[in-house]
Amino acid sequence: MKMRTALLSAFVVALVLIVLLVSLREYYVAIALTVGAVILTRRELWYMMKKRKLPPFDERVRENMKKSARNGFIFFAAASAALMLFYTIDLVYVANRHPVQIMSGLFLAGGLVYLLSYVFYDRVEPKLGEKEVRRLKSFLQVAGIAAGACIASFILHNVASGLLGIEEPVFFVIAVILSPGAIAVGLIGSLVIFARGLVRKQLPSERVSQGDVVPE
Amino acid sequence: MKTRIKEYRTKYNLTQERLAELVGVRRETIIFLEQGRYNPSLRLAYNVAKALKTTVDEIFIFDE
């Protein structure tokens, strides 16, 4: 019952945010997010249509949901902190956006991180080999560290330039060229592995006999 | 941790889907258990063993 209430609440929140995005005329974002969520949860939706009930939420799934909620929250907190930072230094492209748009985007992005984490733990990870999981973690770490380095270099460049009175080159190159490159590499690499796991039916080594009925 | 779930499942001609239904979990959970990549609770281990008509220590082999 608790799970049903939680899912219902998530559905209502998602609906409100979608309505909000539509009212702000962000149609493409709303459509893209809706389609993405439907694609990612298609199996659950199919299960509910076929069997007229929710798929089982066993102990492993509940643990994964907790981990996903933690990931979503960490992302939300980190993104909010980064945004506040941009606000304090008055970056034009952020300041020109309506606060509701920014908050909606943040909530939706946090929700997307939750959904992707959940799909990863529940569906993708069992279909990835140990090496692939390690590689995926490395790619994600590269993207995360690069994002942090980008913000840090951005601040340090401004501080150094302000203190020295010259255009500081090292942090500028890190913030504008190296970090975005590393973020792109990390994200593309992790997306490729993630997609491979999502598409794959089962682990390559398990293909022959994992399925079903093998006579004695 | 190693498991003999697959061996017993094969013995009783059970699919992963069917075993998941019997135990009340998702098929992915059975995959994780078979690969030894998830440490189940005592309750889940007992339910799996019961569905496969054997005991917990027969199915789950812990590395010392």
Note down, in words, how this protein is organized.
The complex is a heterodimer of chains A (216) and B (64). Chain A has eight helices and no strands. Chain A is mainly α and 216 residues long. Chain A starts with a helix and ends in a 17-residue tail after the last helix. Chain B has one domain: lambda repressor-like DNA-binding domains (434 Repressor (Amino-terminal Domain)), CATH 1.10.260. In chain B, strands 1-2 form a two-stranded antiparallel sheet. In chain B, helix 2 (16-23) crosses helix 3. The chains are: A mainly alpha (216), B mainly alpha (64). Chain A binds chain B through residues 55-56, 58-61, 122-123, 126, 202-203, 206, 209-216, and chain B through 6, 10-11, 13, 15-17, 20, 24-26, 28-29, 31-32, 34-35, 37-38, 40-41, 43-44.
Annotate the secondary structure layout.
The complex is a heterodimer of chains A (216) and B (64).
Chain A lengths: L1 H22 L3 H14 L1 H10 L7 H30 L3 H4 L3 H26 L5 H35 L5 H30 L17
Helix pairs in contact in A: 1-2, 1-6, 4-6, 7-8
Chain B lengths: L1 E2 L1 H7 L4 H8 L3 H9 L6 H10 L4 H4 E2 L3
Antiparallel strand pairs in B: 1-2
Helix pairs in contact in B: 2-3
